[in-house]
């Protein structure tokens, strides 16, 4: 049985991790369409080109490289994202792109003859700086001009401006769509980013589906007051409203959620932000996730009701903007089974499981059969500098990706 070259893969992972690396907190900073993010895209194309693969970047910033003519025969596509959250880890996204690269190199050096083209994609803006998964949405053809023009990050930087800073035009993302007939299958290898595989000591996760996610930016507006002179009962303290909502999250999940529900307030801004002033405004994000679109709707509804009641109690004005809404997506039953079978053949332990985090693969499910492979995250940590996966698991995951791609492209 042929295997991938794990040392070569490890070397690539470590090399890419240097782009955007911060010496102080040891995190990787490749937030979508920042300089470091674009540098990683150029690096990936250079690497692929140096080994004789065809490469290009599409209008959405997705980087492609591969073997064979996908205009003649449907391609087997694999990959993940090259961007990271601020202070992210070295495996999230990068592993899926570099494992695809390693699969290509293994196909080439072993001179494996395949009927279908095999291509790899390093997608753009998967981490949702601008509220979506722009790169894979562009490939799936689900972007629209209104969203592209209005998309902005939590600091009010617009997507169109962030792209223009790198000489890109946001509307070109609309030309990045792949017609379904050009694809045979899509595979993504990703770290689990949760504790399940690690705690159960299982090597491979065969993912059945990906939870949906919604993101809100909430404004609670009260009145900024002198912290010394404004009596406690006469305040419109926006922070108190936010604090009350934080306590409601547990109840909302108990009443309307499932064991797969997650609700998170991850970014908070108090204005004017002075220790001696009653906060007149609280701006914060809510991110909700579940495997069922109906449950997601109920959760969103409950957040809305809870915040309205809290606003009345504290004499605040409540407004929110729904920045994104991504429905849950099922992976291909056939490919999930294929992943399980390949794991069995290599004697790797394997678990069929849902994904609590969103991934590029969820948009590929709209245009082709999609399979998602997980490997364990040590202690379940991700989106943090101490994100880690053991190299033997990295190797195992890449071998399964290799086996699945060879099988599909034959
Ligand atoms: Zn990721």
Map the helices and strands.
Layout: H1 6-16, H2 35-50, E1 54-57, E2 63-67, E3 75-81, H3 94-109, E4 118-123, H4 134-140, H5 145-150, H6 159-164, E5 183-191, H7 196-200, E6 204-210, E7 212-221, E8 225-226, H8 238-256, E9 262-264, E10 268-271, E11 277-278, E12 281-290, H9 293-313, E13 317-326, E14 329-330, H10 333-345, E15 350-355, H11 361-364, E16 370-375, H12 391-409
Parallel strand pairs: 3-4, 3-5, 5-16, 6-15
Antiparallel strand pairs: 1-2, 2-4, 6-14, 6-16, 7-12, 7-13, 8-11, 9-12, 10-12
Bound molecules: zinc ion (ZN).
Pfam families: M20_dimer, Peptidase_M20
InterPro entries: Amidase_Cbmase (IPR010158), Bact_exopeptidase_dim_dom (IPR036264), Peptidase_M20 (IPR002933), Peptidase_M20_dimer (IPR011650)
GO molecular function: hydrolase activity, acting on carbon-nitrogen (but not peptide) bonds, in linear amidines; metal ion binding
């Amino acid at each position: 049985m042929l295997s991938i070259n794990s040392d070569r893969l490890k070397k690539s992972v470590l090399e890419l991790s240097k782009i955007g690396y911060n010496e102080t907190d040891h995190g990787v900073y490749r937030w979508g369409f920042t300089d470091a993010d674009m540098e990683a895209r150029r690096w990936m194309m250079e690497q692929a080109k140096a080994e004789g693969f065809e490469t290009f970047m599409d209008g959405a910033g997705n980087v492609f490289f591969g073997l064979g003519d996908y205009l003649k025969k449907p391609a087997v596509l694999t990959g993940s994202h090259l961007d990271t959250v601020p202070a992210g880890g070295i495996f999230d996204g990068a592993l899926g792109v570099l494992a695809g690269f390693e699969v290509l190199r293994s196909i080439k050096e072993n001179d494996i003859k395949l009927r279908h083209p095999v291509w790899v994609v390093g997608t753009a803006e998967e981490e949702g700086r601008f509220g979506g998964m722009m790169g894979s949405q562009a490939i799936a053809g689900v972007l629209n001009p209104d969203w592209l023009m209005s998309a902005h990050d939590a600091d009010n930087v617009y997507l169109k401006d962030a792209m223009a800073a790198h000489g890109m035009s946001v509307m070109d993302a609309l030309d990045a769509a792949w017609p379904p007939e050009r694809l045979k299958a899509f595979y993504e290898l990703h770290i689990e980013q949760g504790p399940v595989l690690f705690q159960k000591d299982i090597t491979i996760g065969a993912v059945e589906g990906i939870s949906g996610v919604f993101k809100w930016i909430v404004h609670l507006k009260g009145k900024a007051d002198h912290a010394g002179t404004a009596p406690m009962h006469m305040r419109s303290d926006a922070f108190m409203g936010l604090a009350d909502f934080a306590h409601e999250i547990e109840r909302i999940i108990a009443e309307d959620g499932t064991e797969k529900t997650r609700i998170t307030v991850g970014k908070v801004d108090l204005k004017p932000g002075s220790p001696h002033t009653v906060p007149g405004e609280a701006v914060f994000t809510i991110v909700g996730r579940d495997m069922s679109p109906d449950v997601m709707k109920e959760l969103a509804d409950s957040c809305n009701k809870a915040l309205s009641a809290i606003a009345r109690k504290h004499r605040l004005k409540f407004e929110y903007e729904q920045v994104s809404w991504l429905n849950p997506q099922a992976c291909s039953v056939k490919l999930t089974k294929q992943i399980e079978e390949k794991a069995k053949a290599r004697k790797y332990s394997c678990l069929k499981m849902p994904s609590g985090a969103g991934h590029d693969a969820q948009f590929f499910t709209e245009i082709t059969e999609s399979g998602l492979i997980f490997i364990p995250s040590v202690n379940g940590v991700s989106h943090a500098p101490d994100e880690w996966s053991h190299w033997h698991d990295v190797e195992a995951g890449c071998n399964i990706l290799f086996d699945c791609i060879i099988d599909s492209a034959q």
